[in-house]
Write a structure and sequence with these properties.
Structural class: alpha+beta
Helix content: 25-40%
Strand order of the largest sheet: 1-2-3-4-5
Strand content: 25-35%
Bound molecules: cobalt (II) ion
Shape: globular
Largest sheet: 5 strands, antiparallel
Low-confidence stretches: none
Order of helices and strands: HEEEEEHH
Distance between the termini: 20 Å
Radius of gyration: 15 Å
Mean pLDDT: 96
Number of helices: 3
């Protein structure tokens, strides 16, 4: 059974490897990731967060499960909006992050079919957050020095918990 990996585990900072073949092993990992996401009440989860450095994510903002393989942000549009984000790899931490409101995501589904979809609002935010994980980008990489200073005690706690 896979388990959530939390900050400061180094796997979270690694650039994840593209999936070469969408097989039963990948589908098994995706299904297990979805189970963990629902169990933890998350809206998304990226494979590095369960210690697997592969480019796969699951997202569900409460409107149905999406399992994406080698996802990319193909286009961004709309204005940048600020909103609070949490992350299962940063328990107890929430930060305000500014992101584009609309994105087009390209990638493959669990059947190996290529697709492109337009996402807005919380969907767009969740996709950007999870795709960030595949590039080793974390919520604390999006905040300024003041927010980061305020978070220091909480981050220290996570660092010591390892
Ligand atoms: Co996250």
């Amino acid at each position: 059974m896979l388990e959530i990996v939390t900050y400061p585990n180094p796997v979270l900072k690694k650039k994840a490897e593209p999936v070469q073949e969408i097989d039963d092993e990948i589908r098994r990992i995706l299904d297990e990731m979805a189970d963990i996401m629902y169990q933890k009440d998350g809206v998304g989860l990226a494979a590095p967060q369960v210690g697997i450095s592969k480019r796969i994510i699951v997202v569900d903002i409460g409107e149905g499960l999406m399992q994406l393989i080698n996802p990319e942000i193909a286009r961004i549009s709309g204005e940048e909006k600020k909103a609070e984000e949490g992350c299962l790899s940063f328990p107890g931490i929430h930060v305000e992050i500014s992101r584009p409101e609309d994105v087009t995501v390209a990638g493959f589904n669990e059947k190996g079919e290529r697709f492109e979809l337009k996402a807005e609002g919380l969907w767009a935010r969740a996709f950007q957050h999870e795709i960030d994980h595949l590039n080793g980008v974390l919520i604390i990489d999006h905040i300024g020095t003041i927010q980061r200073t305020l978070l220091k005690p909480k981050l220290r706690k996570l660092e010591k918990a390892v």
